[in-house]
Write a structure and sequence with these properties.
about 90 residues, alpha/beta, two-stranded parallel ribbon, two-stranded parallel sheet
Length: about 90
């Protein structure tokens, strides 16, 4: 569990839908290390100096090509994320 790991210094969550934020955020176990950004991961402008050790993409694609989506995310985020994964990768 991330919240119990003393080696985790920050957790950034990017969520597109306000309805999801409203439903979940106030009920999540979190502390001062958690940061929520209300944005679309596909169009979000990444700050140039951003770096994360791990990126986990939990995106639902109902139509389209998973490999194309995955490759787009890797191209966009690999300069900023050391290890990239997702629930369907």
């Amino acid at each position: 569990v991330l919240i119990k790991n003393p080696n985790v210094t920050s957790i950034t969550i990017i969520e597109k839908y306000q309805d999801v934020i409203d439903l979940v955020w106030d009920n999540c176990l979190k502390d001062e290390r958690f940061n929520l950004i209300h944005a679309d991961i596909n169009t979000w402008e990444i700050p140039a100096d951003s770096h994360w050790d791990i990126g986990w993409f939990d995106t639902w694609i109902s139509d389209g090509d998973w490999n194309e989506y995955k490759n787009n995310m890797i191209r966009k985020y690999s300069p900023h994320i050391a290890e990239i994964n997702g629930w369907c990768w």
